[in-house]
Design a protein that fits this description.
The longest helix has 31 residues. The protein has a single domain, classed as ABC transporter involved in vitamin B12 uptake, BtuC (Orthogonal Bundle). The protein is mainly α. A hairpin with a 2-residue loop joins strand 1 and strand 2. It contains 12 helices and 2 strands. It has a two-stranded antiparallel sheet.
Amino acid sequence: MLQEIFAFLYQFGDAFAFLVLSAAGLAIIFGMMGIINLAHGEFIMCGAYVTVTTARLGLPLPLAILCGALAAGLAGILVERLIIHRLYHRPLDSIVATWGISLIVTQTVLILLGSTMPGIGTPLGSFSIGAFSYSEYRLVLMAVAVLLLIALYLLFNTTRFGLLSRATIQKPQMAQALGVKTSRVYSLTFGLGAALAGLAGGLYAPTMTLVPTMGVTFIVESFVTVVVGGADVFLGTAPAAAVLALIKAVMTGWQGQLFGQIGLLVTVIVVIRILPRGISGWFLKERT
């Protein structure tokens, strides 16, 4: 009995970590900034490729993951300055533009680096409880997901950057009138979202086969989490990830991985019907 309980909790924690890490960057870019970023998966792929490349060159894995996040963040700032800054408050245009970026990046990587890249293998080892074996690295990912939520909360609620970012996104004209360089804040915020996507790619790179289309593995569940959570990163993303992880763990344990994915999609349909602004919209409405 205890083995089954631990197996369920482990599966729940693994799903929760995946949803949080993959959706954190999108929650900032889509949830906060209103940009429907269909290139989110390509930022994840960028982080994964840079992580594996630097790790194979001899850099320790934690530093390689940070390099992947930094590379994705710089790429995000570049994309924001060249293209995205013209598309704020134009959601349909942002869909087309980021979809185009996604296609260009995927095909460029395919041409230059080939259809696959050799991996580096999952670090750490495994442990067994009864007849089941578990990866220690997955436990690390669970801890990183929780620490990331705490770090983002502190960043946006206790720092000058967080204050300026929230002010610029909510009231850009007022922030600009008060002397805030809103263009710089937009770039840094978008770059932060891209860096978090790269961080997710770097963290999961040792566990996956690296292909140019690997972002597809993340993007569906990322959007599901953000849509269910709503616009507020903190009141939405964490509760949404917890609810979806619970549903996925139950459905997967009952009928397998396919039913876990179906459970997520059914959940987002139900939430959109009942709570069109997501979980965070319901929380904020209850407060007021």
